[in-house]
Amino acid sequence: MLDAALGVETLVDGVPITARPTHDSDGRPTKPLPLAHLIRISMYWLGISAVWSGVLDIVNNRLQYTGLVPKGDEGLGGLQIALAGTFIAILVQPTVGTISDYTMTRWGRRKPYIFIGAALDVAFLWGMATSNTLPAVAAFVTMLQFSSNFAQGPFQGYVPDLVPAKQVGMASGLIGLMAALGNVAGYAVSAVALTLSAHDPNAFFYGTMAIGAIEFITMLSVVLHVDEGKTAKPRHGKSWFAIAREAWGTDIIREKSFLWLVASRFCILTGAALYPIMATFYLAQAFGLNAQDAGDTKLVLLAIVGICVTLSVVPASRLSDRVGRKKVIYASCVAGSGGLAIGAFAPLLPIALAGAALFAVAAGAFLAVDWALMSDIVPKASTGRYMGISNVATASAGTVALAIGGAAVMDTVNHVLGYGTGPRAALLFGAACYILGGVLLRPVVEARREDAIVLDPVGTVGTVA
Q1: Which contiguous run of DSSP H or E holds residue 68?
Q2: Of 82, 249, 287, 331, whose CB count within 10 A is highest?
Q3: How confident is the model at residue 33 (pLDDT cuts 50, 70, 90)?
């Protein structure tokens, strides 16, 4: 290495630093990021996760204990609240993500959408918190789906945009950790609100707005401190309407591994959604707990889940770098299915809590590795589009869990076999979803796109999809 102080260019492995490429052949950066930058990139996931875990749990608490729906129709009520918003999420996230790929502003191409979406989230959370009828709550949840996915679509492009291949495992682990901590924070706020609701009628309002504050603060950490780096894609004269339509172009059919992965994560996330969705109904119906006892028990449950998820995220991400992403996800499917099955048959709460611990380990491992695998295989020039489409699985999984696990399985079994058997049957449905997700993962090719460089028939360089 030559001394830069003498005016001679520094060499690394015999190559001048200024001559070393900053991006690989597929557009992924090659310059390593400091740990603090990786943490800032993933921070907003804590806020997003807190919103959806906390808000949906507060809605379930209100369905179970405040008389928003008749007894025995809690699952149907949850489905009615979530249904319209799911279609909004499916349309908005890929479309806005694609538009952000082409956006050029002084803030960058992602930040304007993130800020606007988060600000609208707070407004719609206030509307939901002050509504006292099922149609009004459903309307504000639908608007919240629009604003949240308006921010999420562009935000999800950050890892493929900014993180070099060698740090994807670590970045995915941090995203998983932040998502897990966000889930715990959201459920913790909801559980405290549930406990306090026995004495304070405004407890659910305060809980909802506290969740909004968490999201807004984490959004600011990203918007104010993350350097987006990568420039926008050239529009080449295309209108914004044409760009929006591009999100739904049929060229995506060629991305076979991507499509199989979306199908797999849809099933896994549907199974994973059953546990938090069923938690209030499970404790109230299967074990007969009142609001205060259910809230206290959920705090214990959250402590167990939080510890298990947090401890499993980083080891799972590092293990995936060694043995491959798919093997870790397969293990997660087995553990998640087992944890849900234990909960379905548990005769006592301590046994149910043991099943929840196993489920939490599985959830942490999946959260750590899922993003890494998705980031490895998506085309880097259109990350907003592909990551937005991938999250169609996330948006629809919760609604399918409510529709089949809640309205179809839980409510039907409750009416046929007796009140309290429904949540147990719903957990068994979730276990089956985990297994199906593992089966659908098999065709996915997990090699990074940037590593799959070949010569096409005319001798030019290309990539293997």
Answers
A1: none
A2: 82
A3: confident
